[in-house]
Amino acid sequence: MSATPAAAMPEGEPLLEVRRLDAGFLLIPVLFQVDLDIWPGELVALIGANGAGKSTLLGALTGLVRVTAGQVVFNGRPVTGLRPEQTVAAGLVHVPQGRRLFGTMTVERNLLLGAYRRRDPRIREDLERILAYFPTLQDKLHRDAGTLSGGEQQMVAIGRGLMGRPRLLMIDEPSLGLAPKVVDRVMEVVRAINHDGTAVLLVEQDVVLALEAADRGYVLENGHVVMSGRAGELRHDPAIRKAYLGV
Amino acid sequence: MWGILNIVNLAHGALVIAGGYLTWLLYSRWHVDPFLSLPVDAVALFVIGYALQRGVINRIIRAPLLFTFLLTFGLNLILVSVLLLLFTPDYRSVTTSYSGSRLELGSIAVPYIRVASLAVAILLAAILWLILNRSRTGAAIQAVGADRDAAQLVGIDLRHAYALTFAIGAAFAGVAGGLISTFQAITPTAGDPYTLQAFAVVILGGLGRVSATVAGGLLFGLIEILGQSTPGLGSGYANAIAFAVLVIVLAFRPQGLLGRLA
Lengths: 247, 262
Hints:
The complex is a heterodimer of chains A (247) and B (262).
Chain A: E1 16-25, E2 28-38, E3 43-47, H1 54-62, E4 66-74, E5 77-78, H2 84-90, E6 92-95, H3 107-113, H4 123-133, H5 150-162, E7 168-172, H6 180-195, E8 199-204, H7 207-213, E9 216-221, E10 224-230, H8 231-236, H9 238-244
Parallel strand pairs in A: 3-8, 3-9, 6-7, 7-8
Antiparallel strand pairs in A: 1-2, 1-4, 4-5, 9-10
Helix pairs in contact in A: 3-5
Chain B: H1 2-5, H2 12-30, H3 34-55, H4 65-87, E1 102-105, E2 108-111, H5 112-134, H6 136-146, H7 148-153, H8 158-183, H9 192-205, H10 210-229, H11 238-252
Antiparallel strand pairs in B: 1-2
């Protein structure tokens, strides 16, 4: 696969700068020398096959997974190897794969827990904002999150992430297990969130979906970034079409 | 504590007894009414519990269950030894001026102390429910119990949440000990039955809900009393019967009577 020229990068200071990052689990390295940048307001797709290390990369950025080498600068501040409660407070929020809601708690409590680190008085206001993105949740606020449909749970998961007032929202596989119509609805809101000013890192196995929504994309293979560039270019790249679209 | 931390605390009984000794100490030295010393028990055991979890137990929180058994078993030995050094193995009891008074209800006479203990127990259950369901800390504790990775991803500091959980458990154990010292003589090694009972009550009721644990406690107590008063069976069988019921319940409802499957 070809590397893309640096000309594809936007101007100014990046919001997130990942440099030569190695990360993994005890005795099992997963990521090798990963470089990745995200500028404020961007929607960036991270694509790759199952087991390529996409979720591990998100975990390494938030502090769930151990970083063994390299560095991460977020919003001008080094955040390499910080614990999750510190990265969340810095505005780096990760919506994990499989929603991971607190199933026996109400939807409202799940959403409010997203604001756990915050002490400001605008938490209620943000809750209203999330209900504006996902109006179907309005009359389900007092139901246990575990009783919702998969699509609704994904909405709560994204909403819970937003309640942390992220500067960068990293969403892992939001389309997983959802009906196409529901996927469209979720992606529409992801775009809206991005349009309203939050940078988004979207991890997706559905390559078409991800590259259609994103400004730029990175391709991860066996723990290495093998390709990056503008989403439109990646979508038409023969190697990607062959590897991920079966064309 | 078990549902959230996923550890079985074999030192629970020792914490109960420590609370009992604190009440006894305050009463015998400064004539502090045992019911007034309960908040002191709670605060002291909270601090001890927080320190134990943060300093010691947190280190093995992700280790297999056997390690938590070994560690809390060791903690239990240490706590009992410290209590032996401080208070000697002599039996101690808190006997107040009202210890012998009873509430007469027709043909039944109930010691006032037991009535007051019941009131305190109800109050404690209510406080615990409020902490867990109405406070930010309680939400964090439950979130950690439900999904520790997701809890971390909303910014909950696991080490602190674990320590708070254990501290709250220890505080409640301490208050229980303070209550027990008013109607039963205590000695440093008297804690083990309470560990066993706490374990049984929580399992019987089902993990994860205060109401379930309260129900488990009531049922377990009732079975014990019935076992004791059944003609032909001595009080020695009370525990055996209660635990037999526990085994039978678990055979049919592994999640406990009111528990939810994770």
